[in-house]
Amino acid sequence: PILYSYFRSSCSWRVRIALALKGISYDLVPVNLIKDGGQQFSAEFKALNPMQQVPALKIDGIILSQSLAIINYLEETHPNPRLLPQDPKKRAQVRMIADHIASGIQPLQNLSVLKQMGDKKMEWAQNCITSGFQALEQILHNTAGRYCVGDEVSMADLCLVPQVANAERFKVDMGPYPTITRINKALLELEAFKISHPSRQPDTPAELRA
């Protein structure tokens, strides 16, 4: 497999965690979203992913984009360890939380949106994340064990950790979100989350390396 990724992209990080958890080795091709006006806009990359976003994964003779679609494919082709619980109610909760982050928070504060916001980008990002986290904290009160849904790592957790990193980058006060903070801390102790971390990627700038 070949993963087209950017060290700081939260969507790419979700996929890197999934690949690490499932023990799938891959080659990484960095796509710098800022350099050269954004390498994702090159004709070469547009041919791989017409949406001109990372991640993209070349695997088993196909090219997949959209992080949750990629993670679902990995789940179906490499079922262990499970990222979606067998119990239908828990599985629905995992998907709900993953969608809450991947559709309801992250796209509103990604690079292409922030570019449109000019001087207000920090305030905009903080507002988007805060409103999303207020809802998420409430949801997790009903679903969480050690992790987002019960005590097993799931697709929801793969979405949570990169989103908390974004919140920290945009200086969101995490005080009102003790459940999110607790789960994030527990997940960051796991090896798959450590090796996939933005501070440990081949394209991480020297000053941001762990």
From TrEMBL:
<feature type="domain" description="GST N-terminal">
    <location>
        <begin position="1"/>
        <end position="82"/>
    </location>
</feature>
<dbReference type="Pfam" id="PF13409">
    <property type="entry name" value="GST_N_2"/>
</dbReference>
<dbReference type="Pfam" id="PF14497">
    <property type="entry name" value="GST_C_3"/>
</dbReference>
<dbReference type="InterPro" id="IPR034333">
    <property type="entry name" value="GST_Zeta_N"/>
</dbReference>
<comment type="similarity">
    <text>Belongs to the GST superfamily. Zeta family.</text>
</comment>
<dbReference type="GO" id="GO:0004364">
    <property type="term" value="F:glutathione transferase activity"/>
</dbReference>
<dbReference type="InterPro" id="IPR005955">
    <property type="entry name" value="GST_Zeta"/>
</dbReference>
<dbReference type="GO" id="GO:0005739">
    <property type="term" value="C:mitochondrion"/>
</dbReference>
<dbReference type="GO" id="GO:0006559">
    <property type="term" value="P:L-phenylalanine catabolic process"/>
</dbReference>
<dbReference type="GO" id="GO:0006572">
    <property type="term" value="P:L-tyrosine catabolic process"/>
</dbReference>
<keyword id="KW-0828">Tyrosine catabolism</keyword>
<dbReference type="InterPro" id="IPR036282">
    <property type="entry name" value="Glutathione-S-Trfase_C_sf"/>
</dbReference>
<keyword id="KW-0808">Transferase</keyword>
<dbReference type="InterPro" id="IPR004045">
    <property type="entry name" value="Glutathione_S-Trfase_N"/>
</dbReference>
<dbReference type="GO" id="GO:0016034">
    <property type="term" value="F:maleylacetoacetate isomerase activity"/>
</dbReference>
<dbReference type="InterPro" id="IPR040079">
    <property type="entry name" value="Glutathione_S-Trfase"/>
</dbReference>
<dbReference type="InterPro" id="IPR010987">
    <property type="entry name" value="Glutathione-S-Trfase_C-like"/>
</dbReference>
<feature type="domain" description="GST C-terminal">
    <location>
        <begin position="87"/>
        <end position="206"/>
    </location>
</feature>
<dbReference type="InterPro" id="IPR034330">
    <property type="entry name" value="GST_Zeta_C"/>
</dbReference>
<comment type="pathway">
    <text>Amino-acid degradation; L-phenylalanine degradation; acetoacetate and fumarate from L-phenylalanine: step 5/6.</text>
</comment>
<dbReference type="InterPro" id="IPR004046">
    <property type="entry name" value="GST_C"/>
</dbReference>
<keyword id="KW-0963">Cytoplasm</keyword>
<keyword id="KW-0413">Isomerase</keyword>
<protein>
    <recommendedName>
        <fullName>Maleylacetoacetate isomerase</fullName>
        <ecNumber>2.5.1.18</ecNumber>
        <ecNumber>5.2.1.2</ecNumber>
    </recommendedName>
</protein>
<dbReference type="InterPro" id="IPR036249">
    <property type="entry name" value="Thioredoxin-like_sf"/>
</dbReference>
<keyword id="KW-0585">Phenylalanine catabolism</keyword>
<dbReference type="GO" id="GO:0006749">
    <property type="term" value="P:glutathione metabolic process"/>
</dbReference>
